[in-house]
RNA sequence: GGCGCGGUAGCCAAGUGGUAAGGCGAGGGUCUGCAAAACCCUUAUACAUCGGUUCGAUUCCGAUCCGCGCCU
């Protein structure tokens, strides 16, 4: 059977609980693939696995970066590869679990070798963009890298800036970096399982989860403490932070805060699904409403066994 | 009961005597170092009802219904 398996799905679909059951059955350790659970001091906001779950199964890449500093797909990749190799070298399996599509892609397909973000150049380009507009920068990109430009929308300031950044840093267009084979971690060796639920049910779960976070888990207090810190730019993007901050400042009622936050997360879940749908060779399972985590885990085991057989057949 | 204001798509909301912006939502998509981000596409024979004026009314007039506010 495959030694590296990934379990992905939208937020609130029930990944963490299912992952623990599945990891137990597989004899695997869990490697998180979540851009927010990597940070410390925000376990509620990021809905990280519970202490009990982490005692049951060893989890990695959770609770390991201060919220004042910044993680990125590249940094995540750099941290994670050795950990996976280490686990495998001990004869255990790896279960990658998470909802951050880009991080999973970085892990399974690698990133190109272009240099990481350069804060100074990026800020310069960004302020320039705000002055003259993204179309201007896009035209410049068109001049130096028409291939990249053809794949980036003129309104997509972020990617235009990244492309120009790489060009400024290396003198080579970003598309030429794309062409270079990146160091793949485990080419073709990862079985990806996607879990999903009926859309209405998923949205209802999201709505309930946020209420639970507010009324049972005490997110508001967690946010209050976080706000005392000089949070990194990435951390400031966590869903709920800005909403609760507005509530704490008295500008917004609790009711409106919750509604805005719920809406944000529902939209996010949809985007996650869009991402995972295009993941090559992903195996989906639609979870029925009353199915228990351990039942789902059993179904997933079947799927994994099947997928492994197919891979073996394909190779011989 | 009287007076005033309002009734435009699932919601909010512009507007015009020649059949009507936009936003939200919803659905789909893109994604190579901020990704819980950013960006793109699609979406509705929607003008409360009935009459009248008019070549033509969502727009003007009248009545009716509903909502809101004020007055009695």
Top keywords for this entry?
alpha/beta, Rossmann fold, Histone, subunit A, 2 domains, six-stranded parallel β-sheet, 14 helices, globular, RNA-binding
Describe the structure.
The protein folds into two domains: 234 residues, Rossmann fold, CATH 3.40.50; 61 residues, Histone, subunit A (Orthogonal Bundle). The chain has a six-stranded parallel beta sheet, with helices on both faces. Helix content is 56%, strand content 9%. The mean pLDDT is 94. It is an alpha/beta fold and 316 residues long.
Q: What are the segments in which pLDDT stays under 50 over at least 5 consecutive residues?
A: none
CATH topology grouping of the largest domain: Rossmann fold
Question: Rough shape?
Answer: globular
Binned strand content? 5-15%
Class from secondary-structure proportions: alpha/beta
The CATH superfamily of the largest domain bears the name P-loop containing nucleotide triphosphate hydrolases
Count of DSSP-assigned helices: 14
Report the count of strand segments: 6
Question: What is the average of the pLDDT values?
Answer: 94
Indicate the percent of residues in helices.
55-70%
The description of the largest β-sheet is: 6 strands, parallel
* Count of structural domains: 2
Radius of gyration equals 21 Å
Order of helices and strands: EHEHEHEHHHHHHEHHHHEH
User: What is the second-level CATH architecture of the largest domain?
Assistant: 3-Layer(aba) Sandwich
């Amino acid at each position: 059977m495959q030694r590296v398996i990934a379990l992905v799905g939208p937020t609130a679909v029930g990944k963490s609980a299912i992952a623990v059951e599945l990891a137990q059955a597989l004899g695997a350790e869990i490697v998180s693939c979540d851009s927010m659970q990597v940070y410390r001091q925000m376990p509620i906001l990021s809905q990280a696995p519970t202490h009990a779950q982490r005692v049951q199964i060893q989890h990695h890449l959770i609770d390991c970066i201060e919220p004042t500093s910044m993680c990125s797909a590249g940094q995540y990749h750099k941290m994670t590869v050795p950990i996976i190799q280490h686990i495998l070298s001990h004869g255990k399996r790896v279960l990658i679990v998470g909802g951050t599509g880009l991080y999973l892609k970085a892990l399974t397909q690698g990133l190109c070798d272009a240099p990481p973000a350069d804060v100074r150049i990026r800020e310069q380009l960004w302020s320039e963009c705000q002055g003259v507009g993204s179309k201007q920068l896009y035209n410049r990109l068109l001049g130096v890298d028409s291939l990249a430009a053809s794949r980036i929308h003129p309104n997509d300031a972020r990617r235009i800036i990244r492309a120009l950044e790489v060009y400024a840093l290396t003198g080579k267009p970003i598309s030429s970096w794309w062409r270079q084979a990146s160091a793949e971690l485990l080419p073709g060796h990862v079985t990806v399982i996607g879990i999903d639920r009926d859309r209405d049910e998923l949205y209802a779960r999201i709505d309930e989860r946020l209420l639970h976070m507010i009324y049972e888990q005490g997110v508001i207090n967690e946010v209050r403490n976080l706000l005392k810190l000089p949070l990194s730019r990435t951390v400031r993007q966590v869903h709920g932070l800005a909403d609760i901050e507005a509530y704490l400042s008295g500008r917004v009622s609790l009711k409106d805060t919750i509604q805005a936050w719920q809406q944000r997360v529902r939209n996010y879940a949809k985007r996650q699904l869009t991402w995972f749908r295009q993941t090559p060779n992903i195996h989906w399972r639609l979870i029925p409403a009353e199915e228990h985590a351990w039942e789902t885990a059993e179904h997933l085991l079947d799927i994994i066994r099947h997928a492994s057989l197919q891979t073996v057949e394909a190779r011989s």
